[in-house]
Design a protein that fits this description.
Elements: E1 3-9, E2 25-31, H1 39-48, E3 64-67, H2 70-87, E4 97-100, E5 105-106, H3 120-129, H4 133-138, H5 140-150, H6 157-163, H7 171-181
Parallel strand pairs: 3-4
Antiparallel strand pairs: 1-2, 1-5
Amino acid sequence: MLRTRVGFCGGTKEDPTYRSLGDHTEAISIDFDPTLITYEDLLQRFWDGHYCASNLGMRQYMNAVFSHDDEQSALARKTRAEAAAKAGISEDEVQTAVLPVGTFTYAEAYHQKYSLTRHHELRAFLSETYATGKQLADSTVATRLNAWLGSGFERDLHVLESEIARYGLPEQLSAYVVAKAKR
């Protein structure tokens, strides 16, 4: 992933916030390199970790895939149908919508890169490096660190060790990240 950020989309309210969401849904926006992973592969990863037959019933936490164009929408619907078949349910039972993004609004700064909040020195360093919540949210370095320190997925530590020198961290923070990622 190049960048991830959390925010709100799919609604009509101008300038939604966590406390005043209107008809928006909480969402994650992902920038990725299509030469390394395709949009369809991202969708497959989403469906593999998501049960499409349940929904909390609240617009704020609605299950949805938000698409940017007709091609993404078609792929989302295709992979949603495949996920339904894999789960042994009909497409009518799927509770995960495929909707247009509309406008994506960044969530407040304290919601961005949430896994890093447990790593106070690292978060403080990043907050000094990236002056605004939007800059932190848009940072590829912060995205990568958030994933390395917060992901429950299997990770290849050789990748981290090969790239961490390019993150621009002080040596003690680099060592801290590698040690925590090995846990």
